[in-house]
Specification:
By secondary structure, this protein is an alpha/beta fold. The protein has helices at 2-36, 40-50, 52-55, 83-93, 119-127, 140-149, 204-211, 228-231, 255-264; strands spanning 62-66, 74-78, 109-113, 132-137, 157-161, 163-164, 169-174, 186-187, 196-202, 219-222, 244-248, 268-271, 278-282. It contains nine helices and 13 strands.
Length: 285
């Protein structure tokens, strides 16, 4: 009898461990989501969306999250896919942000290249109350939400639906609605397997000439899922108009290679301590 009890006890250990780990993760997400939500209703919506498979409760396809870092203004996210993680990374992780010593609060022009659903653009609008925000997003569904999420600052926040590229023209990308934070543009190659969208491509040179001719850019955040290597190597005249930039790297473009390209363009660059795959650069103009 004693041996049977002992075996039963050991058999329960994995289940106890799994339950404890789940509880710890749940508490961690309550803390993380609590740090970005300005009211209990928004917190409840995020938690329901995150733990939907556990709670077995219906969640709307999209819902508003009143966000502490925006003074309680809402951000609309979709329950399915990556919007909730993008919202958390933006307002808790703040990987897109830099110190006011690098980009002063009275900045006049901010570029958000790879804006997704507009979380970072909205945050920039709050951080830099005098700045014109130019947000570029190639996916139509993401861009629609980005316009909605920056509507409060529509007088100085422009969402451009296009792919940032090293030349003007068109590109395509593979559509995956459940991974809407990682769409990667490529040169158009014609019919391929899966659902492919073709979109307008715009160079940063054209973007600046159209939307802020003659102006300097105080800060450019670049998160374009693999297009950054060519962007920093080809048709780089626009870099002379940028005071500070942060690049998130993808597709084998190393921090050392990126830093070397930026140094060749006249920047002082350093590995960003806040993100393992980012390079921060200042133009000593």
């Amino acid at each position: 009898m004693r041996r049977i009890v002992r075996q039963t006890h050991y058999h329960l250990v994995p289940a106890i461990f799994t339950t404890s780990l789940r509880a710890i993760r749940s508490l961690r997400h309550i803390y993380l989501y609590g740090s970005v939500c300005s009211d209990a209703t928004s917190l409840g919506r995020l938690l329901r969306g995150h733990f939907l498979d556990i709670l077995k409760r219906a969640t709307p396809p999209q819902f508003e999250v009143r966000t502490r870092q925006l003074g309680g203004l809402p951000i609309t996210v979709r329950a399915a896919g990556t919007d909730m993680s993008v919202h958390l990374a933006t307002f808790h992780g703040k990987f897109h942000a830099v110190d006011y010593s690098q980009v002063p609060r009275d900045a006049k022009v901010i570029l958000d290249l790879g804006a997704n659903i507009g979380c970072t653009a909205a945050h920039f609008a709050c951080l830099y109350p005098q700045a014109k925000i130019i947000a570029v997003e190639m996916d139509a569904d993401n861009a629609y939400l980005a316009r909605q999420n920056t509507a409060h600052w529509r007088d100085r926040c422009t969402v451009v639906e296009a792919a940032i590229w090293h030349t003007d023209g068109s590109v395509e990308y593979q559509l995956d609605p459940l991974h809407a934070d990682g769409f990667s543009a490529r040169d158009a190659v014609g019919p391929t397997a899966g659902q492919v969208r073709s979109v307008q491509a715009i160079s940063v040179n054209t973007l600046l000439n159209n939307l802020c001719p003659g102006q300097m850019v105080d800060y450019a955040k670049i998160d374009i899922e693999g297009a950054e290597r060519e962007l920093l190597k080809t048709n780089t005249e626009w870099l002379r108009r940028v005071r500070c930039l942060k690049v998130e790297l993808h597709g084998g473009y190393t921090k050392e290679e990126c830093a070397a390209d930026l140094k060749a363009a006249g920047f002082n660059s350093a590995i960003d301590s806040g993100h393992w795959a980012c390079v921060l650069a200042l133009n000593p103009m």
